[in-house]
Structure formats: structure tokens, C-alpha cells
Design a protein that fits this description.
The complex is a heterotrimer of chains A (494), B (417) and C (120).
Chain A lengths: L1 E6 L3 H10 L6 E4 L16 E2 L10 H11 L1 H8 L3 E2 L3 E5 L4 H14 L5 E5 H7 L9 E5 L3 E3 L1 H14 L3 E3 L6 E4 L4 E5 L2 E10 L5 H5 L9 E11 L10 E4 L9 E4 L5 E4 L3 E2 L10 H11 L11 E12 L5 E4 L6 E5 L5 H20 L23 H10 L6 E3 L4 E2 H9 L7 H8 L12 H12 L18 E2 L5 H11 L4
Parallel strand pairs in A: 1-2, 1-12, 2-9, 5-14, 12-20
Antiparallel strand pairs in A: 3-8, 4-8, 5-7, 6-7, 10-11, 11-12, 13-16, 13-17, 13-18, 15-16, 19-20, 21-22
Helix pairs in contact in A: 1-6, 1-9, 2-9, 11-12, 11-13
Chain B lengths: L2 E7 L3 H12 L5 E4 L15 E3 L8 E2 H14 L3 E3 L2 E6 L4 E6 L3 E12 L3 E3 L15 E3 H11 L1 E2 L3 E5 L3 H12 L3 E7 L8 H8 L6 E3 L1 E7 L6 E6 L12 E4 L2 E4 L3 E3 L2 H4 L25 E3 L10 H19 L9 E6 L3 E5 L2 E3 L6 E8 L3 E10 L2 E11 L5 E6 H6 L4 E6 L1
Parallel strand pairs in B: 1-2, 1-8, 2-5, 8-20, 10-18, 12-13, 12-18, 13-14, 21-28
Antiparallel strand pairs in B: 3-4, 6-7, 7-8, 9-19, 15-16, 16-17, 21-23, 22-24, 24-27, 25-26, 25-28
Helix pairs in contact in B: 1-2, 1-7, 3-4, 4-5
Chain C lengths: L2 E5 L8 E6 L7 E4 L4 H12 L2 E2 L2 E7 L5 E6 L3 E2 L3 H10 L1 E3 L7 E3 L9 E3 L4
Parallel strand pairs in C: 5-8
Antiparallel strand pairs in C: 1-2, 2-3, 4-7, 5-6, 6-10, 9-10
Classes of the chains: A alpha+beta (494), B alpha/beta (417), C alpha+beta (120).
Chain lengths: 494, 417, 120
Amino acid sequence: MFDIAIIGAGIVGCSIAREFSRYDFKTVLIEKNSDVADGTTKANSAIVHAGYDAKPGTLKAKFNAPGSMMFEKICGELDVPYKKTGSLVLTFRPEEMKTIQKLYDQGISNGVTDLEIIGKERVHEIDKNLSNVVVGALYARNAGIVSPWEMAIALAENAVENGVEILLDSEVINIEKTAAGYRVYMPDKHIDAKYVINCAGLYSDKINNMVAAPSFKILPRRGQYNIFDKSIGNFVNTVVFQCPSDVGKGVLISPTVHGNILIGPDAEDVEEKDAVQTTLEGISYIWNASSRSAEGLLPGAVITAFAGIRARSDTDDFVIGESKEASGFINVAGIESPGLSSAPAIAVYVADILKELMGRADENMNFNPIRRKVMRFMELPEEVKNKLIKQDPRYGRIICRCESITEGEIVDAIHRKVGARTVDGVKKRVRPGTGRCQGGFCGPRVMEILARELKIDIKDVVKNSRKSYILTGETKDHCLYEVINEFAAASKEI
Amino acid sequence: MHEYDIAVIGGGPAGLAAAIEAKKNGADEVLIIDRDIELGGILQQCVHNGFGLHIFQEELTGPEYAERFINELKDLGIDYKLDTMVLGITEDRIVSTVSSSDGLVSIKAKAIVMSMGCRERSRGAINIPGSRPSGIFTAGTAQRFVNKEGYMVGRKVVILGSGDIGMIMARRLILEGAQVQVVAEVLPYPGGLIRNIVQCLDDYDIPLLLSHTIVDIKGKDRIEGVTIAEVDEKRKPVKGTEQYYECDTLLLSVGLIPENELSKGFGVKIDPVTGGPVVNESMETTVEGVFACGNVVHVHDLVDNVTEESRKAGRNAARFIKDKTSVYGHVINTKPGKGIRYIVPQIIRENNVEHSIDLYMRVDRIFKNEKLVVRIGETVIKKINKAYMRPGEMEHINITAEDLKAGDHSLLTVDVE
Amino acid sequence: MGKTAITCTICPIGCTMEVSEDKSSTSGYLVRGNSCKRGEGYGITEVTNPTRILTSTVKLKNTNLKRLPVRTDKPIPKKLIFACMKEINSIEIDAPVKLGAILIENIFSTGANVISSRTV
């Protein structure tokens, strides 16, 4: 029997799991996909918002600023790439200055520090490629960028190292209230827990409705992005927003923490929760909209596109708290922007709720907040590189040519707790496949390494989900003979 | 730090030919560095024939062509390092390498030949809309799986792009028991050699849809199908022409890009049209003593041309280290004119042209019964009648040293007239 | 027989030709659409006895490389391609093997051998 079952291993679920691992709680983290951070956490703007955007009095406002201030410490402990770049909300017309004045006031009210309204000249000092039509901007020095999926993975790894159990490929299909708490059913098993935390993102309404009457509805809202080749350099140095409208923060241009440039997202309400397709219209829209902030990005420099779906709640705010109907069932739902930024603060808040409900908070005496450092080969100084290769020659073999990632890093990513088991799992952890060739060169090699290290047949290596097979068989396979026979028989003669 | 006479970056057809020619022309210590576990580069996965028609008057397969050069290389005692990645090159010709056997090793060379080849354009780079399931491969990656590792990549295939690699793989997959539904090509004409259209598509009744492209990809885990639509002259999809094709595999043959990250890293000037270094008549880049040849300079159709070009680079790298090349004298710049996309080399130093020089170029569309007109300044120095020219087949013009003197100017242009 | 459309592959022009039976001609066929004599010859051969060099791989044992590239040393009749593929797929070769080694002799009595494309 577990004390706590957390449903959903996205940034929120993983943050909560790691927070709970500080205490002597018996915790299990349940995830329906084959890997952690496979939903919205891997497909968003990756921004740590300063916190001026949320309406005061909302949960978004309550958690954004405090959450974002926790990133430096957490990312340091967990060795997660994070950069405080600062952000600009650009205005293009004098009337828009009123809007950003409002944002400024909101920011102060929400506890945001280092916020100022600046004029055109200062804007161009900060980021020279920005449009000449800019009137002014709201400059937030504390905004930053992070790798959301690496953070979720690091949180999960740290949580598991500190005693949390994790169940992957485990979709929750039903939950029943029991005398002691809840029985959580998955297709092939079930677990019992005293308390359940619902962090199921896009499916959090579905999970809630298993134990209580619907109290919120998730309205999926898709956003599409384009990523640019590193060769275009520092096209922008800060996260560049446009003056917001009703539908959202608008299309931004931002550096990524890995050195690429990102544009997006648009905001399109979609029917399906898994409508993660990109569309011609969506990509076209983000190009047009982003060019308002800065011109000069070329289609030839695009390396990939993706779409993420926001788990927007019809209540227009986060839904965080114990269910009114189902005691001991905590919803942490509707986590759309600024969800990533708020996650660390939400985790502390939810831990407090649980400590109160459980009436105890014994510390985990073995809790270690530090994750073993990831040896990012190319970032190491020369002497360290050589020593590392002598210790483990696999660090001397470069597998991903575009990003210079070594075999040693890939093997390490596979063997850590909550390690990579799929091609995308390797990609998320150490980045082969994120460069300009998009896995064309390293793909076969990564698959070989996965097969060897996991002791599985290379034909069983998948891209991400269990059904995303890559190879279909061997050449010269006997089953193919039937097809070849048919052809031979049907061979035409002129 | 060990100093070699010549360091060759990449041991594919270009690097092999350059190294051999450098050695034969007096370079003593020549070293090839390659990231793969064997020499031969991309040729080792090209099991089809068609290589060597001009160089050997034979139609060899890729591995056969490679073996000829590898044997000669070994006979000449040329050094090579395998399973080794070049991390960077400096202007003073220091090459930083890393390998699991030797760790980080810096190599100094009196001259460098860059022959890193090219990479394939990806789905992401051309922004094909739709979902991102498994089962989408670039043709070259699929070729590696099928030909070297012995794995099939799918059963029901759609191919985007009528470049040679795509067509070759269409045939290869059919012969290994897969079904190839259709090849879609966004341009109004095929990208690769006619011979491949006949022997890879027509032979197997695979339809080729010109002026068509993929506008959507469906599939949650593995690809399930694609939507193909016609495109207009601006290459924009035409509404109402969409057709859905069920498939479990999509192969992309949508262009090759010279792989010049190393070159850009130390200031080599890149020609924005070819994507490769600006080179002179000796195949030298804008950095002294650094030469380049093969697909890294511009994407070739025939390996025979790669060999010719690379021999030139190797020969001149050897001459360079013996101070035999002239940096003085009249310099002519080449410029693509009407109908020409690019010309290689971009710079000609007259004093280094002994007998003649080969200009390589591509036209930007199909031309029938036109002339290629070469001018220096206003003076026409050569006119060649061409019954048929297409972008998918590289053209070449031989200009004699005499021809070069005929015009009194610094600009050589080629126009289609 | 009717008319058969043939795209010539002799030179980059790639003439679209039409080949039909013509008992009155020396060859027995009439070729239209070609720009040269070589094209005419090609068209007739394509219609009467189209042949191709077949290239593929075979299973390889005893070494790290899993597949050995192979080809026929002469063109074989097009209609025998799939039958030959079946034959090629059924064998397994042991390394070491030399470039040019005959792996299948006189495949389907075509007079062509299947040979190794590389030394392993």
C-alpha cells in the first residue's frame, strides 16, 4: 500500500514526486506513456516567466513568481540547463504602452522583482535585431529559459534515487474509492494508495471524473513552433514577447537553452487531446506573427517543427486542491502557462496539503537533492575530456555529429534511474537527433547502442511509444518470399 | 604534435582520390581521418551500379569503386585513422580530433583537404505538416539500414522526392519485398538521372507524380498514411487536389546539403548557392593551404566527377606544400549568368592554369536546344550547343589557358542563350 | 503488340520513343521519337530482350558486416529479376570473401554469375 499515488509524470507530477521524496512517504509516480515528460512537458515554449502576466488573485499569480525564483537552485542541484535571459514584451503602437503598464503593475502585485518599462533605444541595446517599429517594452530581468523535459526527467531520476517508485506504460483506466483510500487500476495491474494526486495534464478531467462529478473541463489548445539551426547564432538574446491579447501571450521569438532559436506558438482550440500535428496554416501564422518582432529569419534555417497542447481548464485558472467530493484526492490540473514556471512552487504547496492531511512530515534522512552530474562531453575542459576518455573510451566516440554527443553520454543516459529506453528517450536526455540532420546520421547508431545496452533486439527498439516500431524485419526474411513469389508470377513480358 | 604533409578530412571517394593523388605528386606523409569504421564513405552502402563509367570505363557498384581506391591507398602506404571525429580546424591548419582509442589528438598539417561530403535534408527542414510518428526516414538512412545492417524499414512505402537516392531506394525496397506506392516530386521535372527513372520506377510500375508534394502526415505511433496534393508554379499546394495514400513508411529524398560546419568554424568563405566553400582553380578555399573537393564543395551526380575534382585538389595540395603554386598574376572571378545556378570554381588564378581548366555548373531549369556562352568581360571565348540541359545533371565546360587570355577582364560569366 | 513507350537512357536527353512491330524493316521494329541511332538500338532491345544488371546483398557470416553487396556480372533478362532475387536471398556466404568471387554460377542459365562486390 502506498501513501501517495501521483498520476502523470510531466513537469508537475515529477516536481511533486521529487518534493515528496524529501519526506518519509511511500510514493508511486504513475505514467501512461513509455517515458516521463512525453506530453505537453516536451512541447512548449520552455520559458520561465517572471510572473507579471498572471491576474492577481489567481492561483497562476500565486505560484508563478515564487516558482520561477526557485529554478536557479533546483536546476543547479539537478544539473538541468537553465539560463536567466530576461524577457521583453514589445509594443508596436503607443496605445500598447498602457497594456504593458498594466502588466508592470500586475507584476509588482504578484511579487515580481527587477521589472521595468523601457524605451525603444534601450530595447535595441538589449537585442539589436528587433524591429524598428518598436515603441517600448516591459523588461523583466528574472525571466529565463530552461529545458522542461530534461528538468522533468532529472526530477523523476532524483525522486526515484530518493525512494519514489515509478510505473511507466501504465495508463490509469479506473480509480475506486476504498476504505483505506483509493485503488488505482491500470490495464495489467492495480495499486492501492491513501492519497491520489491528479497531475494528468490533458487527461486530468478524465481522471477527476473517475472519482467525482466533473468540476472542470480541459479545453485543449494547440500551439505550433519552429526551431532554427544554431548557425544563425544569437538572433535574439532575450525571450521576446509581443503585447498580449485576449487569446494569450502571443507569438514569441526566444533562444532555447541549447542555443537554437524558437518561434511560436499560435493558439488554436482543438477537439482531440492528442492533436499534436503541425499544420500549414499554423506554421504560416507563427512566421507572419513573429516577423513583427524581428525580421531576418529564413525558412532555410528551420530544422524542425512541433506542436504542443495546452491543458487549459474551463475555469481559466489552475485547479489545485483536494476534491470536494473525494477526500484525499488532490487535483493539480489545468496547468497551462505559466505552468512550467509555477511547478516548483506548486510542488511545495501540494506537499504542504499532504503533510496536513497525513498529520505527519517525517523527513527522509537519506534525501539527497543532488543529481549526479551529466558529463556533457563538449562542455568539459580539455584535461577532463582526456581523463574521461581514458576512464571510459566510449566518451571518445562521437555518435551525434551535429551536436557532438558521445557514446559515453548515451550509455549513461540509458543506465540512470528513469533512464532512456527509446530513441526519443535518448534524444530528450542527451540530444542526438535534435541537430540539423535530425537523427539522419546518428539514428542507426543510437538504435544499436540501445539494443546493446538494454539487451534487446534492434528490431524491438522504438521511437517513443511501444507501437512506434522503426525496423520491420530483416532483409532476406523468409516471409518476404511470398511477396517476391507473387511478383515473379505476375512478372509481365512485353 | 605530429605534423603531416597533408591531412585529408573524410575517407570517402573524394578523400581517397585526393590522398592518392597528393602522394603520387610528392607529398610524403599523407593522413586520412574518417569517422566510420572503414574507408569508402557513402560508397560502401551504394550496392547499386553506375559508378566508374568515365574513370574506369566500367559500371561498378559503390563498394567495388571504393575498393579500387582503398587498395591503391594501401599500396602507397597512406596512413588513415578510422572511428575518429574531427572536432575543429584552425587557420594555422591544426586539426582537433577525438577517438575512443586515442582520446583528443591535435594534428598539424602543411595542407588540408576537406572532403566531408554532405548530409540529407530532413522532414523538419522542409516543414512537412502533420504528426511526427516513426517510419519516416531520409533515403540515405534507410539505405544504410537495408544495405549494411540488413534490416527492412517498412512494407508499404511512399517516397517524396525524385532525387537519385530516392529512386534507387524505391527499387531496392521492392527487390527486398516491400510495396512502393508512389514517388511524389515537387518540381515539374524529375530530380535524378533518367536512367534511374527507367530502371527504378518504370521497370517496377511505380508512378511518378511531378508537381506534387506531401501536405499531411497521419499516424500516431507509426506512420499510417500521407496526403499528397498537386502544387502550382509557386510550389504552393492546390486545394481540392489532395489524395490520401496509405503507407507504413515515408522515405525522403529532398536534397543534399554540403556538410560545412567544420569549414564555417574557421572562417572559410562559403558560396551561399552551392552551400560549399568558395574555391579557386586549384580547389583551394579562401584559407591558404586548405583545399576542398567532392560533395562538400557542391553536390555531384557522378562519382567520376568527384574523383576528377578530388585528384585536382590532391595534386594541388602537394604542389602547395612544395611552394609550387603561384599566388600572383591575373585573377578571374566566375559568375553564373542567365539560366545558370552556380559555377565551380568561383576563382581562377591564371598563372596556375597549365593547359586548361574545367568549369562545373548547373542550370536552373530545363533547357532545350540552347547554347552555353562563356565570356570574359564582354568577349565571348566559347560557345557550346546543347540539345538538352537539366538541373539534375551537372554540366562542364573545358576552357584552355589560351581561351582565358582572350578576354581582357576579371569576370568570367556563363549564360544560357 | 501495339506501341510501347520507351524512355531512352543512353544520354541525358532521355527521348520518349515509341516502338512498334514493323515486319517490313530489317530489325522487325519501327522506332519513333529517337534523336540518334543509338537510341533506336536501345529501343529495340528494350522491347525484344530487356536486360538489367541486378544488384543486391546476401547474408554474410563470420564477420561484423551482416550483408555482402553482390551483383550479376552480366545483364540478365528483366523478367527473371524476381526469380533471381529469390535465389540470391536463399544463400548465406561465409567470410572471408574476395571481390569478384562467384557466389552463384550461371544463375537461371542466363550465363551471368552473381559475384561479390567487395572483399571482406
